[in-house]
């Protein structure tokens, strides 16, 4: 209890000394104390209040007289205050009346100041808004004049610089809302321009490609002419050393080429000159500014790929004319020239990897198209023009950095096809020459005609040169014509080999291979067909053999000709040889075989005219008419063979004699012939004697001794055996190497003897004559012995 009293005093002191706003915490401590503390505090507070009241009362009692005096003074002043109030009121009234005008003027001044301040504020705001409005107006003007890239830049300035200054105004919000719409409008318009551009270059790509290919061709012609001019001095020295004067035409042509190139130098056009690329640049810049460059790149590449597929799709009849190929190549070149230009003048729109990928895709398609369409070409001139176009096409794109090795590989495939078309064309040429040939030696009337022939064909014959005019060359007119056509074929084949970027050695090898095909396949086939034709006689076959001999000799001149036009040295080791030797040998062998066949056929025709009376008693005393006609035919025929090589004529003569001997032997042994009289054998012997006389007369020079007569040895021994009736000698010497009748076989002798035996049996009067009966018995005895020999041979075999 005693402790709480000081605490209450302390609280009361704090309340008296603390501001009223801070009394709360102090009062709260009264209630937080011990129980009944509040009552005790209120008692303490009441006691404190009573103390203060007593002090106030003391103080009032002490100052009461002074207060009364002050009130008295105030009452005195009250009257003066009333007067002063009236005076002040009057003064105020008069002052108010006097200040009304001042107040009106003051209000006017205030209003003017307010307006002036507002005007200043408006001017400041207008000065802040006018650049925005001017920039927006500029934006609208740029949109109207289609300066879209500048318009986008203006939008960026508006958004970054001007709009933040006036963002609180409603018109600014409207402008801000319009900007995305304007951007989309610009994107749509620029994309539309790009589509128009893509459509334009699709239509004009052939013109672009045609110009690029023409420039590449002119550049190549210029370089070729320059190279020829550089080599001209060297060639002059070589020609002078070899006493040959070069033609000045080369210099004239070179100068003309240089002059033409100089004229074209001022007219060089590029893709940029032919096409307005500004839509691409503009659209690329616009999309880059809009942050959508990737979308533009993807769209551009996608559309160009589609256009590439359209360009690479050829027309169905492209192979019919060279213009179809030229248009196809021009479109492709134009496409890739545009892509190359875009690659070099833009940053990132397309890349080298993209163009390489596109080119590889296009190259595969181009090769497939050319391989297909070129296979339809049957005209070598068209194939050659196609080759020239491919070379220009490849050179043009190679100049733009595109790899074209596969195109040159394709040209080697087309070269084989070109050679095939040439072979077909020259097959017709050779066939016409051979059909028009009269198969007779070329008549020469004078020196001029001789020089004309010699200029066409390398013919040399010192013996013929010594003869006087008129004279005849051994070959027929077809030989120089064929030789000329072979050279024309070589020229035609060379045309394709030019500009293939191959060495002279490779070109020389290609020419020789194609010429070999011409000789071994085309010309050989034409000669073989000519030889097999039924209307070709022996005289024509002889002339064909002579012609092939001269053509074979001319092959070395063809080899020299190829070497000269390809500028290959004679010491080149890897040069292929011409197969003309084997070609003409095969044709000659075929002609020789045909001569043998036709000669035998002619002999058979004469043999069919034979009309023997096989039962005659006595011979006519002279040879048969058909046989004499046959021998005369053989004599005249072998006279034609004088121009043939010796072995050919000898082989033909031997073959004819052997065939004649065989035919006569078959006539005697014919199964249809049942009876032969001795008189018929004697008559037959007269014919064989004529044959032997013909063989001994050496119808063809070169036979040694009785070589040709041996063709009739079988007949001679058989006829001698029957004419002499020397059966004892035959049977005794049979099987001996030195037998007189070594060439007579028992089978042949038996067959002829049985025919004579049958003839004896049918002779009724011969049976009553003793000599004839004895001879018949002898025949039967010889027949039995011959049969024994034949059976012995059969058992032994």
TrEMBL record:
Q: Which GO terms describe its biological process?
A: Golgi to plasma membrane transport; intracellular protein transport; vesicle tethering involved in exocytosis
Task: Say which family it is in.
Answer: Belongs to the SEC15 family.
Q: Which InterPro entries match?
A: EXOC6/Sec15, EXOC6/Sec15_C, EXOC6/Sec15_C_dom1, EXOC6_Sec15_N, EXOC6PINT-1/Sec15/Tip20_C_dom2
Chain's role:
Component of the exocyst complex involved in the docking of exocytic vesicles with fusion sites on the plasma membrane.
Query: What are the record's GO terms for cellular component?
Result: exocyst; plasma membrane
Q: Which protein are we looking at? A: Exocyst complex component
**Ranges of residues in domain Exocyst complex component EXOC6/Sec15 N-terminal:** 44-213
Which species expresses this protein natively?
A: Salvator merianae (Argentine black and white tegu)
**Which keywords has UniProt assigned to this entry?**
Exocytosis, Transport
Q: Which residues form the Exocyst complex subunit EXOC6/Sec15 C-terminal domain?
A: 407-755
**UniProt keyword annotation of Transport present:** yes
């Amino acid at each position: 209890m005693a402790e709480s009293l000081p605490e209450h005093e302390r609280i009361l002191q704090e309340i008296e000394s603390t501001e009223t706003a801070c009394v709360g915490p102090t009062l709260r401590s009264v209630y937080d104390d011990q129980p009944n503390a509040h009552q005790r505090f209120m008692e303490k507070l009441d006691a404190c209040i009573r103390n203060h009241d007593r002090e106030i009362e003391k103080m009032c009692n002490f100052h009461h007289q002074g207060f009364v005096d002050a009130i008295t003074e105030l009452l005195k002043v009250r009257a003066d205050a009333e007067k002063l109030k009236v005076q002040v009121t009057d003064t105020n009234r008069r002052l108010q009346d006097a200040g009304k005008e001042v107040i009106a003027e003051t209000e006017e001044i205030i209003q003017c100041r307010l307006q002036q301040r507002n005007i200043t504020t408006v001017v400041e705001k207008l000065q802040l808004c006018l650049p925005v409005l001017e920039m927006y107006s500029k934006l609208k003007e740029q949109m109207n004049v289609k300066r879209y890239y500048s318009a986008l830049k203006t939008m960026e300035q508006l958004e970054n610089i001007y709009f933040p200054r006036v963002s609180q105004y409603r018109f600014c919000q409207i402008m801000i809302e319009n900007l995305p719409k304007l951007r989309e409008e610009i994107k749509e318009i620029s994309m539309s321009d790009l589509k128009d551009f893509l459509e334009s270059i699709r239509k004009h790509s052939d013109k672009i490609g045609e110009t690029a290919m023409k420039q590449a061709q002119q550049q190549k012609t210029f370089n070729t002419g320059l190279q020829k001019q550089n080599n001209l001095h060297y060639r002059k020295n070589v020609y002078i050393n070899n006493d040959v004067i070069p033609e000045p035409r080369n210099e004239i042509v070179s100068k003309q080429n240089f002059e033409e190139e100089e004229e074209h130098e001022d007219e060089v056009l590029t893709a940029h000159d032919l096409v307005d690329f500004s839509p691409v640049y503009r659209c690329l810049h616009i999309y880059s500014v809009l942050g959508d460059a990737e979308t533009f790149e993807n769209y551009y590449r996608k559309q160009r790929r589609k256009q590439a597929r359209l360009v690479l799709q050829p027309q169905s009849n492209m192979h019919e004319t060279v213009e179809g190929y030229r248009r196809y190549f021009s479109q492709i070149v134009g496409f890739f020239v545009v892509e190359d230009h875009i690659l070099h003048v833009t940053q990132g729109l397309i890349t080298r990897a993209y163009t390489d990928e596109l080119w590889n895709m296009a190259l595969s398609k181009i090769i497939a198209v050319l391989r297909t369409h070129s296979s339809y070409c049957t005209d070598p001139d068209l194939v050659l023009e196609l080759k020239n176009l491919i070379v220009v096409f490849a050179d043009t794109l190679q100049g733009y950095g595109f790899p074209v090795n596969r195109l040159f590989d394709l040209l080697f495939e087309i070269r084989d096809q070109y050679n095939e078309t040439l072979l077909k064309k020259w097959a017709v040429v050779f066939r016409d020459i051979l059909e028009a040939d009269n198969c007779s030696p070329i008549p020469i009337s004078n020196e001029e005609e001789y020089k004309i022939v010699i200029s066409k064909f390398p013919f040399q014959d010192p013996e013929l040169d010594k003869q006087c005019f008129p004279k005849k060359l051994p070959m027929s007119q077809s030989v120089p014509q064929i030789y000329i056509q072979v050279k024309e074929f070589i020229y035609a084949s060379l045309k394709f080999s030019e500009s293939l970027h191959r060495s002279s050695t490779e070109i020389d090898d290609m020419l020789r291979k194609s010429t070999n095909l011409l000789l071994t396949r085309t010309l050989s086939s034409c000669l073989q067909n000519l030889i097999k034709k039924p209307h070709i006689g022996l005289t024509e076959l002889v002339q064909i053999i002579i012609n092939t001999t001269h053509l074979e000799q001319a092959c070395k001149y063809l080899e020299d000709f190829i070497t000269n036009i390809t500028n290959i040295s004679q010491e080149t080791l890897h040069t292929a040889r011409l197969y003309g030797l084997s070609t003409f040998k095969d044709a000659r062998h075929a002609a020789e075989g045909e001569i043998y066949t036709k000669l035998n056929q002619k002999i058979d025709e004469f043999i069919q005219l034979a009309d023997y009376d096989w039962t005659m008693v006595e011979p006519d005393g002279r040879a048969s008419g058909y046989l004499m006609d046959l021998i005369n035919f053989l004599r005249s025929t072998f006279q034609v063979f004088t121009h043939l090589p010796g072995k050919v004529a000898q082989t033909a003569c031997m073959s004819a004699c052997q065939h004649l001997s065989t035919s006569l032997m078959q006539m005697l042994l014919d199964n249809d012939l049942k009876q032969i009289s001795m008189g018929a054998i004697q008559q037959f012997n007269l014919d064989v004697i004529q044959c032997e006389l013909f063989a001994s007369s050496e119808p063809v020079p070169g036979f040694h001794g009785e070589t040709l007569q041996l063709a009739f040895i079988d007949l001679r021994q058989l006829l001698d055996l029957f004419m002499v009736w020397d059966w004892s000698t035959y049977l005794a010497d049979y099987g001996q190497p030195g037998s007189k009748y070594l060439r007579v076989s028992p089978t042949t002798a038996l067959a002829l003897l049985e025919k004579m035996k049958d003839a004896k049996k049918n002779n009724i009067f011969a049976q009553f004559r003793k000599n004839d009966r004895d001879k018949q018995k002898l025949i039967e005895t010889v027949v039995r012995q011959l049969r024994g020999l034949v059976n012995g041979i059969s058992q032994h075999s």
